[in-house]
Amino acid sequence: MEKDNSKEVVDSASLLNRPVHLDKAIEMVGFGYFHYYILFICGSLYVSVAFSVTSISFIIPSAQCDFRMTSFHKGLLNGAMMIGMLIGSFIWGYVADSRGRRFTLIICMLMDGFFNILSSVSQMYSIFIFCRLLSGFGISGSTTLFSYLVEFLNIKYREKFLSWMEMFWTSGIILVPCVAWLIIPQTFRIENEYIMFKSWNLFVIMCSLPSITLALLLIKMPESPKFLLSQGKHKETINCLKFVHRWNRNSDDKFPVTSIIMPSSNDKSNNSFFDGLYKSTIDLFTSKFKIIAIVTCIIHFCATTSYYMLILWFPELMNRFRWYETYSNFQNKTTMCEIVSMYKAEPEVTNLKCDDHIDQSVYMNIMIIGIACIPTSLVVPLFINKLGLRFFTVVSFFGSSISAAWLYFITSSIENMVLSSIFEAFSSIGISLTYCITVELFPTEYRGMAASIGTMFGKIGALLGNILIGIFIDAHCIVPIFVSSSFLIISAFLVITLPKTGRTNIITDGVL
Hints:
Residues 38-503 form the Major facilitator superfamily (MFS) profile domain. The protein is an all-alpha fold and 512 residues long.
C-alpha cells in the first residue's frame, strides 16, 4: 500500500494545475482505512437487510396461533413485505439518483426500523401486515448501498469489494436464527386488556435495531463523490475526496487535486418529484443501455422469485419434517410433497390445538444453512478478478437450480437440510452478484434507477412466488419447485448474454 501511495504522490505533482478526471482523482486519494470502513458500513447495512427480510420466516410459525394464520395467510404475510419493496424500489431509485445515495440509505433504514418496531406491538393481523408492507417500502431502498460503495472505489477494487458483500449477507443469515433461538423459545408473556407481548414480539424489535443504528452512523459519512459531481457540485466533490484522503493517510496532508473534469449536469431540480421519476425511467429505457436494463430486470425477476419462493419457507418445511418424523405412524419413507400435505390433514396436531412451537432443530438447521454459505462467500472474492462476475453468477444459478429441483425427491429432514444449504449458498450469492453486475454495467446517472428497477422486478417475482407457494404447498408442492428450478436456469442463460464487467468494459462518461 505504501508503495502505491508514494507513486500516486509523484504522479499527482504534474496534475496540480489542471483538471483531473474523477476516476484518476479517486485513485489519488489512495486506498486504506476509509475504504475498509465504508465496506464495513455497507456490509452491515446488508446484514440489517437480511435481518429485516428473513426474520419473517421465524415470526410466521411462532405467531401463527396469535393471528390464526392458514397457509394462505402465511404466504400473504410473506408477500406483504414484498409489496412494499416492489413499490419502494421504483421510487427510491429516482431519489438515489436525484437526492443522493447517503440520504436515501438514511431515510430507508429509519423507515424500516420504525415500522418494524411498530409491527412488534401490533395486535391484529391486518395491522401487522400493513407495518410489514411499510417496512418493506423502506428496506427496498437499501439496494442503493451497492452504488454508494462502488462510487468510492477505483476500478482495481470494485469487483472484489462488491463480491465481499455476500459474506455480510451470509453473516446475517447466520445471526438471524441465533437471535431467534435466544429469544423466541422464552415463555414470558405480558398481557392486559390492550396488548399481548410475547417472545416473538421482542424478536421483531431486536431485528429492527441494526437498521436504526446504521442510519445514525451514516449521518457522519460523506455523500458519494460520483453522485456529487454528476449533480454539478464541484466544490462538494473536492471536499469529499479530501475527507477520504485524510482518513486513508491518517494525516492532514494536502490533497493535490484542486479541479475535476466536470460532466454534463444531471440537475432535476426544475422537475416535480413524479415528473422527475417518470423522466428518469424513460431516459433509462430509451438510452443505449435499454437492452441491458431489460435483461437485468428479467434476471432479477426470475432469480428473486426462485429464492424467496423457497428460502422464507425453509423453517416451515423443517417444522413439518420434524412433525412427520416425530408423530407420524408411517414406516415407509415418502417425498417432501407428501409430507407437507399430511401436515395439513393430520387431526392430532391441527384440529385439537394450535401449535406455535418451533423445534430447536429448526434454529440449528437454519444456522447450518447459513454456515454452508461461507465457502462460496470466501471463494468468489478470492478469484473474482481472474474469472469475473459473470462466470460466478452463471455457476451460482445453475447450482441452485439443480438443488431446487432435487428437493422434490428428498425423504428426510437431513436431506432437506443438505439441499437447503446448497440452494441458499448458490442462489443467495447469485442474487448478490446480479446486483454487482447491475451497478458495474451502468454509469452514475443511471446506476441508482437501474438497480432499483431491477429490484422492483425482483420483488414482483418474490411476491408472486410467495403467493404461489402459499397456494400450492399443501396439495401440489411440485409446482413451486418446478418454477423455482426453471427460473434459475433462465437467469443463468440471460447472464451469459450480458457484457463482461471489469476494467476492459468500462463505459466512460466522465462520472462512472
